[in-house]
């Protein structure tokens, strides 16, 4: 099984090859075993070696010597003729080798003019902010002369599969054009599931779809620049079997369900009528799916998914956003998840089935967590909080009150991390077992083949609750002992301060709760104006302290999420990274892999430009 990432062979990637023609399984007449790629020098250098033997003809009779000289002359003439024949015929491309030449890529069509609208939406033409990151970190030239070169069995052929994933964010839209290689059974046309990421093209533009709240058609056309780039990248014969999906994140929700639905409907219609790709999904992505796709991305890049990773444990992921935090992990062998809870997710990838725990804690993102702590402080008579610097001021809005008069000013004190962490612990991450609910009924539990446990409590309560605020989760330290990757604000608030060990963005950093606590203690003292504490901090950390008055609070929140919420020990090692093996650790790659793998399992991924379109 090859690595899921094709390693770069040189710094100048070769041009993309038409796989169907190259392998001789498309419209050409050639075979996959053609040797037309050999040079004349290499072909003949080993056939005609120079001779260094000495002549001894003077010892032979004259007639015999003359006869042999004549024979030698004939041999020489024949050799010259053979060389000429080889030079003329063997080095001339045959019709089959001509069919294997790379096909020209289609050129982007001219960008249509953006129609004007009454509300004058931002232009998507000349003024659009389009940037390109052509991530050729893999060799995009798949020079496969036979199936064995790629690791395919004798009854399979290597083939290419493209996938387009559009990330419609709040500030802009981005497209990822992924190229995968895999083995396809020649007889059945079904993939063997060994996806190898071979190449990625990344394009982005501004503004985002939410900039067109009253003009759905303009929103749909704003993606044309991205899609034309994709058309130029994907070979024409593979357009029809290249899936495209658009997933909007929370930004589109801000304009309301009616307007966001109108925009998504217009986009889906334009994708189906103006572009040749196979439109699969156009929707607003659930936060839980985002975490699950990120889990697929991380474990794919670590080569711990599919049959090749059967002996290795998958990694867990924790994602800390602004409004919520997510966790996804596969419990170790011998640990079972309840069948009657919504946190249980079953999925398949690369011929293996997975049962994972997944949950999104709404209201426990960093910004929402900060607001909760400030609100708890504001509810006190003196509205003072040790998590802020001495004398520092932060406003908190009363729930449900959007007026400026509804804001309360919270004043910082100089009590430091110890008092701050106790305050956070007392007001967040409630671990009361009595709150843990199964979210079901006795009948639902029986139907799932699971005992309805209540441990003597009220109906609907269970005793296997290690989450917080009444959320079911098996005890993390007891049920999972693999690597844990922490992303987003975990990275921004810890790794960005430059205090962790590791090799940087490409391979990430490692940290423990001891590191978080040490950093939090120093930062909380520094924000209180402690001169001695400031001497122990780097210029980078001190600058962050000056720019972010809530840094002490943020670190305290993270510390308690890991220690109290997830019950991790102080010595448990966590990893944080923005990239693994040069590839971003976000959700887009995982979503594309899940999409392509699902197509392959259904037999919809074809070779030589022939495929079944999804219904």
Automatic annotation (TrEMBL):
Alphabetically ordered keywords of this record: ATP-binding, Hydrolase, Membrane, Nucleotide-binding, Transmembrane, Transmembrane helix
Primary enzyme class: hydrolase
InterPro entries: GDA1_CD39_NTPase (IPR000407)
EC numbers for this chain: 3.6.1.42
Residues at the catalytic site: 290 (proton acceptor)
GO cellular component: Golgi apparatus; membrane
Chain positions covered by the region annotation Disordered: 34-59, 95-131
Pfam (any one): GDA1_CD39
Transmembrane segments: 71-90
Sequence ranges of Low complexity compositional bias: 34-46, 114-131
GO molecular function, one term: ATP binding
Pro residues bias spans: 103-113
This protein's record includes keyword Hydrolase: yes
Gene Ontology biological process terms, A to Z: nucleoside diphosphate catabolic process; protein N-linked glycosylation
The UniProt record lists the keyword Transmembrane: yes
Residues the record lists as binding ATP: 322-326
Protein task: After transfer of sugars to endogenous macromolecular acceptors, the enzyme converts nucleoside diphosphates to nucleoside monophosphates which in turn exit the Golgi lumen in a coupled antiporter reaction, allowing entry of additional nucleotide sugar from the cytosol.
Family, similarity comment: Belongs to the GDA1/CD39 NTPase family.
The protein, known as: guanosine-diphosphatase
Originating species: Physocladia obscura
Origin organism lineage: Eukaryota, Fungi, Fungi incertae sedis, Chytridiomycota, Chytridiomycota incertae sedis
